[in-house]
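Running co-folding for iron/sulfur cluster.
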Amino acid sequence: MFDKFHDECGVFGVYGRPEAATMAYLGLYALQHRGQESAGIAASDGIRMRMSRGMGYVADVFNEHNLAGLPGSMAIGHVRYSTAGESRLANAQPILIECAHGQIAVCHNGNLVNQRELRDDLVARGSIFQTSSDTEVFLHLYARSKQPTIEAAIVEAVAHAQGAFSLVFLTPDRMIAVRDPHGFRPLALGRLGDGWVVCSETCAMDLIGATYERDVEPGEVLVIGADGVRSLRPFPEARAAHCIFEHVYFARPDSLVFGDSVNRVRTNLGRRLAGEAAAPADVVVPIPDSGVCAAVGFAEVSGVPLEMGLIRNHYVGRTFIEPTQAIRHFGVKVKLNPVRSILEGRRVVLIDDSIVRGTTSRKLVKMVRAAGAREVHMRISCPPSISPCFYGVDTPRRTELIAATHTLDEVRRYIEADSLQYLTLEGLLGAVNSHRDRYCTSCYTGHYPVPFPRDEAQYLQLPLKLDTRGEAPK
Ligand code: SF4
């Protein structure tokens, strides 16, 4: 496994299309990069809802047989990487329940910062949880709501939550999309003929021929049913805090995220990096695939040619049998192989999107040097990662983030590069569109837009990310 922050989850929903479950399957296929632990789809034929879920990739979980068991013109789907709750089938999504309001299923991308107190309160009042996932909290709150309509009960349930949530609910006759008031995680709305699509990234729309309309706005509730699309704004306004790491690394470059082209932003990051931190090099080499767009921008501004000096093996499965001592750095070598004819005798500038623990960067620098590079310079297309994420992204604890505990030169010496430079925060914000004040940058600054209760640090999950002093985020 590469030393990266890990993707959160991907959500997809389609309303008003025949074979909706198959559409959801295709949509999830396009969102596979956002989670590989489990996949699931819930569908409705207008009367009854059915669900199929499993552990593994979308292509492993679904086949003609189980998709045929999901009839109807409405479906929601989910790919999961566990950021809260362990990895097991019970925690796979969607979660489908039947309660006083009828059947409902939910898919969630994000992380609640107050899930523990909500859960403890619900358990004290008699709720029995089936999963360890924070998403189930929404359904218990919903089931307990005395509101007369489905929409009002969802709004009442969601109003208790703090943190990051892009949610898609499905009931037998409607689909409801909700985005938290800060808009941490993306959620886009599109058209597909007479039907509607909501999804984490627009690359899922491209695959099924849907057209991007707009983002579900922060704090917006979209009710999609037989009478069309209704927009509700039931929550108090809050400062927007879109996850800037979606642009740096998570999202696919062919997606629009937060209304902006990921490819455009990522290439801009490389352009700005070249302006801020030029390197004495003969060749620009991206770490594939995440460093490619930034390397294109870096090469363009620096005038140094871009060449694919590292080749990625795309067919490595999630698990492979690793020799113990026989082949050093096997884990990196099986995924990336250096091209000696490009690297030998040259001064190389490697472009990557982040350094987390530094272990992979160190192996890559060694590998490039071993392939004959005369000098190896490392340039990173975002600022140093110094703080963990509490909003749905899997990050190590602070003490494990190398830039949080080491100076720039110490990191350089650890990864054994001839020089090391990161993009500045100013450069990062300058690469996005004009709404630079609408982004979360907490993992680079340690300043958090949504604090969690201090005693939350006593609970499972979140303290795993705090340092040994148990320090709560600012
Ligand atoms: S802390 Fe970092 S990874 Fe988490 S939401 Fe903010 S920008 Fe994204």
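Result summary
The radius of gyration is 23 Å.
Residues 184, 243-245, 389, 391, 393, 440-443 surround iron/sulfur cluster (CB under 6 Å).
Job closed.
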